[in-house]
Amino acid sequence: MKIGYARVSTTGQSFERQISNLRAEKVDKIYREKASGKSVRGRPELEKAIDALGTGDVLVIAEWDRATRSMMDGITIISRVAEREALVKVLDKPWLDLTTPMGKGILALLSAMAEDERERILRRANEGREIARKNGAKFGRRPKLTDHQRSRALERLASGESQNAIAADFNVHRSTISRLR
């Protein structure tokens, strides 16, 4: 089975060219939506198209840049389709016809590039955090209580005052006081 997908960004745009190309490809069902391409979220019809795929089916995408906005997003879509044991064919990008050996090779290359990009992003983020730590940056949430408030709360706990009363005085939840012990 061939399942088609087409998207336009605004209500003023037309599906006509994409739908015509999908019909020429003889797709069995066409999912279409009008949604902004700025975000990778908010594409329910694409989700439905992928969910409708079965083993051996082909998701036919009229225009690649209408289905995705980043390489990582594109690889995620392709991976999700592959998990369903289906294939992808992109009409405006013949090299992204994963029904062919050349297309499968391109997918392997794109996957390797995406993995490399993820590793570089992670490495840069870790290096940035390490530099920030060396420069005195503190990570995590700020404490609800100052050092003075913590010591005062501990004194009050030691004298037998209830956690609820201390928490109310410091305007924090009882669990904040209970974690001081």
> Number of helix segments?
8
Helix content: 40-55%
- Uncertain segments of ≥5 residues (pLDDT<50)? none
Cα gyration radius (Å):
27 Å
Question: Tell me, what's the shape?
Answer: elongated
Terminal residue distance: 63 Å
Proportion of beta-strand residues: 5-15%
Q: Care to give the gist of this entry?
A:
The chain is of the alpha/beta class. The chain has helices at 16-24, 44-51, 64-67, 71-83, 101-134, 147-158, 163-170, 174-178; strands at 2-8, 29-34, 58-61, 87-90.
How would you describe what is shown here?
There is one protein chain. With 181 residues, this protein is of the alpha/beta class. Helices cover 51% and strands 12% of the residues. It has eight helices and four strands. It has helices at 16-24, 44-51, 64-67, 71-83, 101-134, 147-158, 163-170, 174-178; strands at residues 2-8, 29-34, 58-61, 87-90.
Strand and helix layout:
Blueprint: E1 2-8, H1 16-24, E2 29-34, H2 44-51, E3 58-61, H3 64-67, H4 71-83, E4 87-90, H5 101-134, H6 147-158, H7 163-170, H8 174-178
Helix pairs in contact: 4-5
Features:
four-stranded parallel beta sheet; alpha/beta; 181 residues
